[in-house]
Amino acid sequence: MNAGRYSYLTHLECARCGRRHEADRYVGLCEECTSPLVARYDLENLRAEVSREELAGRRWELWRYHELLPVAAPEAEQKLGEVVTPMLRMRRYADQLGLEELWVKDESATPTSTFKARGAAVGVSRAAELGVRRIAMPTNGNAGAAWASYAARAGLSALIVMPADAPMITRAECLSAGAELYLVDGVISDAGAMVAQAVADGDWVDVATLKEPNRIEGKKTMGLEIVEQLGWTLPDVVVYPTGGGVGLIGIHKAIAELLELGWVQGEMPRFVAVQSDGCAPIVRAFERQEATSTFFADSRTVAFGINVPKPLGDFMVLDTLYSTKGTAVAVSDDALLSELRVLGASEGLFVCPEGAAAMVAVRQLCSDGWIASHERVVVLNTGAGIKYPECVNTDLPVLDAGAALPIAEAR
Amino acid sequence: MNAGRYSYLTHLECARCGRRHEADRYVGLCEECTSPLVARYDLENLRAEVSREELAGRRWELWRYHELLPVAAPEAEQKLGEVVTPMLRMRRYADQLGLEELWVKDESATPTSTFKARGAAVGVSRAAELGVRRIAMPTNGNAGAAWASYAARAGLSALIVMPADAPMITRAECLSAGAELYLVDGVISDAGAMVAQAVADGDWVDVATLKEPNRIEGKKTMGLEIVEQLGWTLPDVVVYPTGGGVGLIGIHKAIAELLELGWVQGEMPRFVAVQSDGCAPIVRAFERQEATSTFFADSRTVAFGINVPKPLGDFMVLDTLYSTKGTAVAVSDDALLSELRVLGASEGLFVCPEGAAAMVAVRQLCSDGWIASHERVVVLNTGAGIKYPECVNTDLPVLDAGAALPIAEAR
Question: Is residue B271, in this structure, part of any structural domain at all?
Fold first, then answer.
């Protein structure tokens, strides 16, 4: 009876208390306990009515998985070019680590050049479809850029608050998209409090991380794509640079849904949450085997996207690590800046510092045997290196026109 | 008898004197007159042996057009994720111009986030396939970043020389990819002379614009994609921000080949070359109906990618404009910086200044009637706006943490 449904979304479920909410009106947080909501689908009927082979003829964009996304109709999809991002096999670099099969899922190709576009594409599309006209959010930069862009595409107003030391490029993106942008002398939690106050005083909808349910669904598409790009098979290990952790939660949810659908068989991969040792609340909690994290004071790292001192979804991230026999690793800024150059010179891929952090973790986990050489590893590079040009020292001497190049000396 | 050939390349032909060169060894310029070489294919047999329907099942990347590319074998393709880039319909913005059907071919999604990746992907792959191990080139930034990245991917050495005032981000990209990078106090022609000297003194191969034939072939894929993405039909007008002009030459070549193959029917589109009024050699030559351009002294524009005072392929660009009943338009930096913001706020797309220049040209050509309201227009956005963050003024006041957002005043 559900044949031909575009989305198989049924309801939203509270991640803490389990309360069910209807999905056909906009709701951000659980109305019982104000916890994050999770989208649920009619997987039983989807399994009966659609086979994964039907995807073959569809566009190579994240919307190809529309049955597993919350947007109810194709005309509500706001598009800025959400291509299925490349899975790049790293052979030369993997050889250095003694690893047979290493893949980078490279999110550079997304609109606004980070994985944040996925959450924004699905989040804005669904919010607009349900009648939302004005969105507000705090950001460390990239999420604000993505949501501001999709808001403009959808004709919505956007209010963005970011720390003054967030990446400068993301300011330009928010302003280019016509968003109302404010800078704060503080961290993302300060920005979040200021947004919450504006939301309380006005008619904005707060779309901060996990304050609405559709960002997870957008990020889930990374997991759907990884599995399809591996020929509907599973990796052994997924390594994810973890700030808010929504991508990790989303990839895990994607694979759980695909397993339940029977679109893939096998073992759930082990998940690795990678943080900076300048901001490692998940790693600390994991080491103590705790269910939630503690605020990480005075956090600081060049990998700005993972500078999240107390992720709202910490309990979901930690649960994923425990249930998949995963782990959590903190790396130093020095190590990640160095790894960024090693990977770039080996493979030509300029990753973001968060992606470089994940590479350091892979190196460490291979070295200490947690990852075995025959295992198939997928690392998320969550954004383009060009959004963080300060990660490479570009201070070079300037030659006069006509000068001979000092090539011999440089060798 | 050619059935199953991966590439239908037959030979290289001099664009000036017509001399034929064999394609199975590396050759950069015509050995008769040192003019640019153009790749030629066995279109007659390709037409008989392959139908465009065979492409349907192939990967959504530029290599799907391998019969029309020079790389002889799939294992020689160096890949960093050359997705077919999005064609984005601009409805809200087109309404402002009184235009029914406006598409932006958005090159942001390419590796290194500009269209230069196409030339580099095909150019490096083919050079490496023919035994080249060391490449050298002058650049205004983005081409160097792209070629350095693909060189690293292929395991080649790269020597790059760029003006000291080229976009800072592209320095970081070259260095990240392990290239030998030099900065010069001068323009791209100064860099070119220094590269030529290094090539004469050493064992580098000069892969500067039009000094090797495969960059055109890579850029040709923009044209192949546009036609396929329009359902194997042709646009009426193609608007292209023109520096060296290789992209324009390539798109025209692509459509000519598709017409000859019978994969598309109809009229060749009219081509529009867009330049900055601070560097407009093609526009000046077009106004005088000349066959070649004159060096444009003291050139200067924020659209750094089109700051090319004397393009080597000027005669090919001008010939395309004349033969297609096209035109050439110069726009001011002020106009393009303003248009960049208008487009961003209307559609959420942050274009590069070169793309913004093309948008200004569309607005002018619609306004003066050269483009009719019912015509189907494709504009090339040659790169991501984030590579030029200085195009948006991001100087904002910084609020104290906890301050109320001054929303009322901002309205």
Answer: yes
